[in-house]
What does this fold into?
Amino acid sequence: MTRFQAAEWKLLTDLIQDRFGLTFDGVRCEILESRLEPRLRELHLGSLSDYYRFLRFHPEGDAELGRLTPLITNNETYFFREAHHFDILVRRIVPDLRSALRTRPLRILSAACSSGEEPYSIVIALQNGGLELAGVRWEIDACDLNPERVAQARRGLYDAGSLRACDGEARRRYFRESGGRFELRERYRTGVRFFEANLLAPNGSFGWGSYDAIFCRNMLIYFGEEAFDGVIGLFARSLAPGGYLLLGHSESLLDRATELLPVSFGTGVVYRKRLSD
It folds into this structure.
């Protein structure tokens, strides 16, 4: 399957899983191999064992782990992906908070935000729902492991693939075309703050620390069991009592014991943190 030995793969992938929570097998293993080949050539290393030892023991090992993050992350995303979640946010979650939001902003976390399509879709949904005109303010934290994607998110400049769910009117309304690419208009960036974060960092926490809703969609499917449980625990700690977690369609907590209870809104299942006693 690969030119590397199984024992070499286990050393490296165990390290990746320990640091980042991500697992690799099957075709994902082959993709990772193709991405790692240029790093091994640049570092003049002949095997994955050599690369593992470089990461663990070389003085530049931590810096190389930083270079590794863009190679191991899956950045498949686009505007308005799984759009029913934005509808749930605007029509069900925010109305329940109306009294509290008279005196404070709505606080949302977009975890594993990649290049920003998700948090910007949230802003667009909130504005289209008339919430800005109704006086609702928001603060959206958006984080990702990959520094290159975080930088792209801050620029707000996208290829056509990121707009695959946008019709012609949406493209004209939300974006300014520039040299075959699409720049998100400034008004749809309101209240978003991007930063780098490893969800598996020890004693992890986020900016505001108490969110009304956390979006983390289509990332946990790549996590091992221990990492999955650790991240869900982090989210549970980071949600305000009664706050909501929105996961991707292939991810579920239904067979897990957590502080988060499933809630069906007709268009989909989300998870709500228990209210304080």
